[in-house]
Amino acid sequence: MLVLVIGDLHIPNRAHDLPAKFRKLLVPGKIQQIISTGNVCDKETFDYLRSVAGDIQVVRGDYDQNTTWPLSKIVTHGPIRIGVVHGHQVIPWGDTEALNITARQMDVDILLTGHTHKFEAFEYEGKFFVNPGSATGAYHPQIEDVTPSFVLMDLQGSVVVLYVYQLIDGEVKVERIEYRKPFDSRSV
User: Fold this and answer.
1) Is pTM, for the whole model, over 0.90?
2) CB–CB of 148/137 below 8 Å?
3) Residue 150's closest CA among 171, 167, 168, 135?
4) Is the alpha carbon torsion for 131, 120, 17, 141 positive or negative?
């Protein structure tokens, strides 16, 4: 299953739109699900994302207008449990230990977060942590130049392949990262 992980768009507050080169890549019919880490901000942007994939899972960021979206969510794909939070509630923001505590509390294999506007993916204590960054490159007070980015997650059983898309010097660069869920002998 191909899942788009996207967040911190901040349209129209801090950015006008997705970069045109990203829009060309995000076409209907290729992506089965979208998971948003929040700060979609307006209904028009949410509707655009829904046009790319009808199955959209979203959590509320600190700037979202839709107050009915949950602050956290768990999405299950086969043996993989994915936790989603915006990240503003994980203190200190982006801290490995704080993220790990959140992942353990949610009992998830993968934790998707946003808020820092910076792409990050790493494995820690058998769990996988992914921040897709800001898809629009929206301003963040702690980062001088935000690199626009998003992630496509290809879920294949207990293996997850990430394709990280970053807009660097006007060109889309793609990086591949793989995560394998550790075998849990306790579940046998």
Assistant:
1) yes
2) yes
3) 135
4) positive
